[in-house]
């Protein structure tokens, strides 16, 4: 049986292309399973997974939990909107307390970049990063690339545009790394204040005019403005942002080819995307959500294969 | 009468008449009494064979963070003394960032009274402004009279140009030395590492280069305007080196130092979020490190400082964002500098490098440092370039262990540091 080259899923940067293809192939099987009348398989029976969410999350947490339930894992959930540090307990102590209850795998979301990497050096369980600050969100990138593969048959050679707050987005970073590994071309587009200075060195193109960027791409991934992560005002108002970077049907009609519209959610309708576009046939936003469950099942299944039980 | 003889030792000391020579060094009553071939062993109480070892004047650190009073769990004067000796240092400038910070004459006197008993000479700095935070100047004149060697707001940059201007002008009257640490807080808000692709790939906000060099430029202009010296501490960028180089060519009274960690590593070392490498200034890019070495080589940068910053494990075993800045470096500074030299600037000789750790900082502070010469006070370091140093939890003399280099082999080994009558040997 093929195995992942890593024991934790901390970020896309640690995965090889073969790892990503293995995750996709495994997800194909799980996607077939979750569309059957009986959606549950015993693959993670006797595996206990702790979902540790130190930052608010609805869709990612639900997606992981559903994936775990479909795989018959035992689950414990821990949510805290504030970080453990502000409560006086360190992250290591919080997690060690939970792990002392014999947990095999940790799915963690945390507001601090590198929190999952840090944890992986201090505990034994397999760690799956469900988003760490502005660092990475690997399962989102995998499900996005998987959705592109599903739409076009392959990711290689596709032109993927990522629009919005690239500076504060873990989704953008993981997407860039993942799409590059799979041979896609990537362009980022957004206000000059929200595009990091050295981003071209990650192998992406930069365009600040949305219309030009849309002409270039096959797929447009519209990101949400991460107000909660901005420590400063990077543009004058959402209205002005929307005027320049909101995706409207008028813009799409100007294109000489159909493009695929993606969004990692949650959508701010009327800001980065209009309802008309979000609900159109071009949008695969809800397919992304469905694929998210299959991808997360695949990731946890493959990580569990690497766990040695005493 | 105490006496000892160091046999077969090679002098690596630019200011010594014996530089480059191998011979026997005799010390009697804390002074070098002779250097030559086959000196009679009989007349000495102790005889040591230091074949393959080199000797240079003891080191002077321009920048060591304070731990006493207030942070005695991190280091004490006693542990700093031991750590300094193990690292080859005979003089240690102590930043005023104790708790409370050293704002007054009595704070300086407290240090002076505590450190008399140690062989290492502690040189306390006072604050420039009250508590290193306000815009109100501290009593620098009074502190200088009590023994303050210089003035600094430690790791708190003085953002207010008016305050820095006043501080330089005010200290001119009594020839006070102001250390400025240049990182604009406004331009580095929420940032922990150097801006660049590494920061980007780690999802960490980067500290741009201009956060430093804009303030460096300001300090140069202020020093020129007031016609009084300023010392810029811990520069880290290529552009800062060039600005200071040009300023020195124009005769502006500016000096500067570089922290040893910035000479050995680049931001690439942080790729796994090691909080022991969360430093201020941050580790920069390879071109910056090379420029820093070139600056040291051509005299633009006067000295290497340790910026020794002991911290309890609770401040470091945290997510990168929450961990405190700083690392212990005092004991392994030479090894770190050698690592950096070997990697980035191998054309610099040992003697040239040692000068950045001994004579240059002592000249900058106007303190006399004896060289390896007959009738000079014995104050030197015995270094074995053929042995490696590995600092671990057992031989680490600091009370803290926040270091990337713990348990990692470093080039060169300090056999011992001699101050007057005593050689303080290192064990490994």
What does this structure look like?
The complex is a heterodimer of chains A (310) and B (428). With 310 residues, chain A is α/β, with parallel strands linked by helices. Chain A folds into 2 domains: 12-136 and 289-309, Rossmann fold (3-Layer(aba) Sandwich); 138-285, 3-Layer(aba) Sandwich (Rossmann fold). Chain A is 38% helix and 15% strand. Chain A has helices spanning 17-34, 59-70, 91-99, 115-120, 138-152, 170-181, 210-216, 238-245, 249-253, 275-278, 285-305, and strands at residues 48-53, 74-79, 105-110, 126-132, 159-163, 185-189, 205-207, 219-222, 260-262. Chain A has a 5-stranded parallel β-sheet. A 4-stranded parallel β-sheet of chain A has the order 2-1-3-4, with helices on both faces. In chain A, strand 1, helix 2 and strand 2 (74-79) form a beta-alpha-beta unit. In chain A, helix 1 crosses helix 11 (285-305) and helix 2 (59-70) packs across helix 11 (285-305). Chain A is globular, with a radius of gyration of 19 Å. The two termini of chain A are 21 Å apart. Chain B has 2 domains: 3-55 and 373-425, Urease, subunit C, domain 1; 58-364, TIM Barrel (Alpha-Beta Barrel). By secondary structure, chain B is of the alpha/beta class. The A-B interface holds A 13, 83, 85, 90-92, 110, 112-115, 117-118, 121-122, 132-136, 170, 173, 177, 196-199, 201-202, 231-232 and B 189-190, 195-197, 200-206, 208, 272-273, 275, 314, 317-322.
What's the helix-strand series of chain B?
EEEEEEHEHEHEHEEHEHEHEHHEHHHEEE
Global outline of chain B: globular
Which second-level CATH architecture of the largest domain in chain A applies? 3-Layer(aba) Sandwich
- Helix/strand order of chain A: HEHEHEHEHEHEEHEHHEHH
Q: Structural class, judged by helices and strands of chain A?
A: alpha/beta
Query: Radius of gyration of chain B over alpha carbons?
Result: 21 Å
- What is the first-to-last residue Cα distance of chain B? 30 Å
Identify the overall geometry of chain A: globular
Query: From the helix content, strand content and strand pairing of chain B, which structural class follows?
Result: alpha/beta
Number of domains of chain A: 2
Mean pLDDT of chain A: 92
* Strand residue percentage of chain B: 15-25%
Helix content of chain A: 25-40%
**CATH fold label of the largest domain in chain B:** TIM Barrel
Q: CATH topology of the largest domain in chain A, what is it called?
A: Rossmann fold
Number of domains of chain B: 2
- Beta-strand portion of chain A reads 5-15%
């Amino acid at each position: 049986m093929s195995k992942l080259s890593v024991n934790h899923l901390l970020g896309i940067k640690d995965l090889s292309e073969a790892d990503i293809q293995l995750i996709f192939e495994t997800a194909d099987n799980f996607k077939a399973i979750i569309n059957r009348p009986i959606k549950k398989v015993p693959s993670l029976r006797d595996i206990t997974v702790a979902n540790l969410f130190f930052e608010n999350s609805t869709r990612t947490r639900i997606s992981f939990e559903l994936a775990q339930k479909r795989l018959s894992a035992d689950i414990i959930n821990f949510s805290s909107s504030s970080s453990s540090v502000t409560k006086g307990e360190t992250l290591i102590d919080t997690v060690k307390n939970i792990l002392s209850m014999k947990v095999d795998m940790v799915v963690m979301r945390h507001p601090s970049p590198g929190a999952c990497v840090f944890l992986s050096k201090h505990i034994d369980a397999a760690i799956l990063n469900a988003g760490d600050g502005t660092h990475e969100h690997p399962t989102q990138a995998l499900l996005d690339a998987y959705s592109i593969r599903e739409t076009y048959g392959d990711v290689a050679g596709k032109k993927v545009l990522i629009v919005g707050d690239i500076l504060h987005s873990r989704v953008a970073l993981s997407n860039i790394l993942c799409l590059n590994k799979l041979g896609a071309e990537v362009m980022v587009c957004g206000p000059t204040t929200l595009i990091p200075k050295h981003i071209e060195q990650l192998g992406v193109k930069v365009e600040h005019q949305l219309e030009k960027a849309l002409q270039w791409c096959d797929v447009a991934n519209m990101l949400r403005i991460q107000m909660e992560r901005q420590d400063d005002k990077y543009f004058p108002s959402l209205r002005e942002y929307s005027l320049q970077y909101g995706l409207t049907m008028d813009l799409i009609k100007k294109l000489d080819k159909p493009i695929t519209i993606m969004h990692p959610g949650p959508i701010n309708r009327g800001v980065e995307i209009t309802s008309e576009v979000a609900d159109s046939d071009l949008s695969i936003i809800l397919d992304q959500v469905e694929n998210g469950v299959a991808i997360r099942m695949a990731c946890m299944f493959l990580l569990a294969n690497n766990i040695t039980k005493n | 009468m105490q006496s000892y003889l160091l046999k077969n030792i090679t002098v690596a000391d630019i200011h010594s008449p014996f530089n480059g020579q191998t011979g026997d060094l005799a010390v009697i009553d804390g002074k070098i009494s002779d250097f030559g071939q086959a000196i009679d062993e009989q007349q000495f109480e102790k005889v040591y064979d230091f074949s393959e070892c080199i000797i240079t004047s003891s080191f002077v650190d321009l920048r060591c963070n304070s731990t006493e009073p207030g942070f005695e769990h991190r280091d004490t004067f006693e542990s700093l003394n031991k750590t300094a000796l193990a690292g080859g240092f005979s003089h240690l400038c102590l930043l005023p960032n104790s708790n409370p910070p050293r704002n007054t004459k009595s704070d300086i006197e407290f240090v002076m009274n505590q450190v008399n008993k140690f062989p290492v000479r502690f040189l306390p700095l006072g604050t420039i402004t009250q508590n290193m935070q306000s815009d109100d100047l501290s009593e620098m004149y009074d502190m200088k009279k009590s023994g303050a060697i210089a003035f600094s707001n430690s790791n708190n940059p003085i953002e207010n140009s008016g305050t820095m201007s006043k501080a330089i002008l005010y200290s001119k009257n009594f020839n006070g030395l102001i250390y400025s640490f240049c990182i604009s807080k406004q331009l580095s808000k929420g940032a922990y590492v150097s801006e660049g692709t590494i920061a980007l790939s780690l999802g960490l906000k980067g500290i741009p280069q201009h956060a430093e060099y804009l303030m460096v430029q300001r300090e140069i202009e202020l020093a020129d305007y007031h016609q009084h010296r300023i010392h810029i501490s811990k520069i880290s960028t290529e552009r800062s080196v060039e600005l200071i180089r040009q300023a020195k060519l124009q005769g502006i009274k500016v000096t500067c130092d570089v922290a040893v960690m910035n000479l050995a590593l680049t931001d690439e070392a942080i790729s796994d979020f090691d909080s022991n490498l969360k430093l201020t200034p941050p580790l920069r890019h390879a071109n910056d490190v090379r420029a820093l070495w070139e600056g040291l080589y051509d005299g633009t940068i006067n000295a290497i400082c340790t910026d020794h910053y002991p911290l309890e494990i609770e401040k470091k075993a945290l997510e990168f964002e929450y961990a405190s800045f700083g690392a212990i470096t005092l004991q392994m500074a030479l090894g770190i500098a050698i690592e950096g030299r070997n990697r980035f600037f191998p054309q610099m000789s040992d003697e040239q490098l040692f000068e950045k750790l001994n004579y240059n900082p002592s000249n900058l502070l106007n303190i006399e440092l004896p060289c390896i010469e007959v009738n000079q006070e014995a104050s030197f370091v015995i270094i074995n370039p053929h042995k490696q140093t590995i600092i671990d939890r057992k031989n680490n003399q600091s009370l803290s262990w926040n270091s990337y280099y713990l348990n990692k082999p470093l080039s060169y080994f300090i056999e011992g540091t001699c101050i007057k009558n005593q050689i303080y040997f290192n064990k490994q």
